[in-house]
Amino acid sequence: DAGVIQSPRHEVTEMGQEVTLRCKPISGHDYLFWYRQTMMRGLELLIYFNNNVPIDDSGMPEDRFSAKMPNASFSTLKIQPSEPRDSAVYFCASRLAGGGYNEQFFGPGTRLTVL
Amino acid sequence: QKEVEQNSGPLSVPEGAIASLNCTYSDRVSQSFFWYRQYSGKSPELIMSIYSNGDKEDGRFTAQLNKASQYVSLLIRDSQPSDSATYLCAVSSISNFGNEKLTFGTGTRLTIIP
């Protein structure tokens, strides 16, 4: 398996623009997580899905952020409109339902820069 | 108060010595504790998990947990330059939604000096 796939790997955009980050989890995994990592706040959980259903979105910073999982092999995280403070590395991770909570496999991340 | 606290470092250790990384957490009911390693520009990878008080050894790595003190540590014996990375402490807790989630510390940057 290729592991968790994220695209794009780097994104540079201007304030006010819409940004869409994409994730393909490992085939067969039931859970999908979106994280954001910054130097100041570390790695923060934004939202996670179980069987394509959002379970906990309490980490989503505000209404500008939205996430969808239309099927078991694809998820998006959208920011509209983007702001400079959204600049961070965004990770997607997935795991099997029967696996321990720790057994999350992370994608390579998307480095977002909002100018 | 941060839920999971780590010294950000950098921590410099001579090659071959023992590196000691520490983490404290605030949620007394936390049950599961993890150490992730993250190389610069890469994603986190799990290296150790521990669930009960005491020590757990895996190769050159030893995780130590003290729930009474709300303290978890990671020891790396015979440190190698390849151990140079940021180490993230993660603690499981119950969210406001009643489900389990992982909370990460901001990480300790470790440098092994040849």
Overview of the molecule:
The complex is a heterodimer of chains A (115) and B (114). Chain A is an all-beta fold and 115 residues long. Chain A has strands spanning 5-7, 10-13, 19-24, 31-38, 42-50, 53-56, 65-71, 74-79, 88-95, 105-106, 110-114. Helices cover 0% and strands 54% of the residues of chain A. In chain A, strands 2, 4, 5, 6, 9, 10 and 11 form a 7-stranded mixed β-sheet that branches. Chain A starts with a strand and ends with a strand. With 114 residues, chain B is an all-beta fold. Chain B has no helices and 11 strands. In chain B, the strands form 2 sheets. In chain B, strands 2, 4, 5, 9, 10 and 11 form a 6-stranded mixed β-sheet that branches. Classes of the chains: A mainly beta (115), B mainly beta (114). Chains A and B meet through strand 5 of A and strand 5, strand 9 and strand 10 of B.
Task: Give the helix/strand layout.
The complex is a heterodimer of chains A (115) and B (114).
Chain A: E1 5-7, E2 10-13, E3 19-24, E4 31-38, E5 42-50, E6 53-56, E7 65-71, E8 74-79, E9 88-95, E10 105-106, E11 110-114
Chain B: E1 4-6, E2 11-14, E3 19-25, E4 33-38, E5 45-50, E6 54-58, E7 61-66, E8 71-76, E9 85-94, E10 100-104, E11 108-113
Give a short synopsis of this structure:
The complex is a heterodimer of chains A (115) and B (114). By secondary structure, chain A is mainly β. Chain A has strands at residues 5-7, 10-13, 19-24, 31-38, 42-50, 53-56, 65-71, 74-79, 88-95, 105-106, 110-114.
